[in-house]
Design a protein that fits this description.
Blueprint (H helix, E strand, L loop, with lengths): L16 E2 L2 E4 L3 H10 L6 E5 L12 E3 H6 L6 E12 L2 E14 L1 H11 L5 E4 L2 E5 L2 E4 L2 E4 L2 E4 L20 E7 L8 E4 L8 E7 L4 E7 L7 H11 L6 E7 L6 E2 L2 E3 L15 H19 L5 H13 L2 H13 L9 H7 L3 H12 L25
Helix pairs in contact: 1-3, 1-5, 5-6
The structure holds flavin-adenine dinucleotide.
Flavin-adenine dinucleotide binds next to helix 1, strand 4, strand 12, strand 16 and helix 5.
Length: 381
Amino acid sequence: MPVRATKRGDARTPLHGEWDVLICGASFAGLTIARELARTDARVLMIDRYEIGERQTSACAAPTTWLEQLGLMDAVQQTFGELVVHVPDRTFRWPLPFTFSTFDYRRICALLREQSEGSAVFETAKVEGRTGFTVHTDRGDLSAPLIVDALGWRRILGAGANVQPPNARLSRGLEVHPHANGNDLELWIDPKYVRRGYSWSFPADGELRVGVGSFDPHDHVKEPTLQLASDVGVPAERWQGNWIPHQLRPATEDGIFFVGDSAGHCLPTTAEGIRPAFYFGLALGRELVDVVDGRQTRGQALARYGAFSDDHLWQYRWLLRVQNWVGRITPTRLLSPAIRAISPPGLVRWAFGNYRDICPPEFALERRSAPARPVRPAAAA
Ligand SMILES: Cc1cc2nc3c(=O)[nH]c(=O)nc-3n(C[C@H](O)[C@H](O)[C@H](O)COP(=O)(O)OP(=O)(O)OC[C@H]3O[C@@H](n4cnc5c(N)ncnc54)[C@H](O)[C@@H]3O)c2cc1C
């Protein structure tokens, strides 16, 4: 885990001002938007409570083609063409129609930052709230006509009171990162660890990311993570965990743009949130480019981006149905036949192909997202 580098105490000087675009959150989604805006002359400020790449937010496994298309292959640690799925009495090997790679978080953030050619100014500041188009931080107030919330599941810049766990539509994930090696991308669907959810071990070049995710926010995951680490034979050290949204939320609200986990873009069932953060980050970044270059108003961008995100509702609903189904298979002895039934290679290829198409990697190469549906009349900008 990286050493803390965030400015503290006296180094946190007051920060005020007006910008063209204010990006709150500098992880997968926020950095992707800054990268798009690099081709404009806009005055962009990006803020995060930590230095860029300082605090890893995930197990960092993503489809390799996405990393390729975004020019991020230098961060890749290991690549996998198979998924090994363990149920209580059996192990299945699913050949995947596309590969997944684990990557180094700090490195990928640095690469994304390099790609924005430093055009966005970056400052560490903790976001505390918002009034209209002014964001309140622990270092002062910042204003911009275009404000992005890429702050993760808390959706801090949303209107009204936020729903907190365990009542929100959130899963919870916790993992350890011991120094160890492995060859397989492994999943466990086993109530021994978690009743409704799954567990994983992702090797990443001398590190194993071993963790447990529960779709039910009431169920604790610390004890199961300790047990899984012990079963895998690794020390439970270097912890990382967070809440994970599993329901799509409106991607625009009160004139603010939401992206990544703040919009619930993380995919239900798999809790894969990096690829959607890239995908919706690109879509939003392209809309913002058109606003700052004068080709559309903020209101049009809000309408277009909101409609684009909403057009994925049916896919998210389907994945949520599958998620609700996981863990309802009782007794446990039926798990093995259920997984066997979905294991023929043709079926795995079909399912993963459809899953991939929810946020397809080709999108990274498009210059601008086509309107997902006719653009609604512009709201007041
Ligand atoms: C244990 C675990 C393992 C996971 N593994 C995977 C995986 O292998 N593959 C995958 O695709 N997805 C994985 N996910 C999901 C994935 O991590 C998220 O969906 C993804 O990180 C979302 O990206 P984001 O940019 O929207 O938000 P985040 O990556 O969460 O970034 C939010 C940023 O906002 C900053 N921030 C938050 N609050 C404030 C504040 N008040 N002020 C200032 N800054 C703030 C944070 O410091 C952070 O930099 C995992 C999640 C967990 C919890």
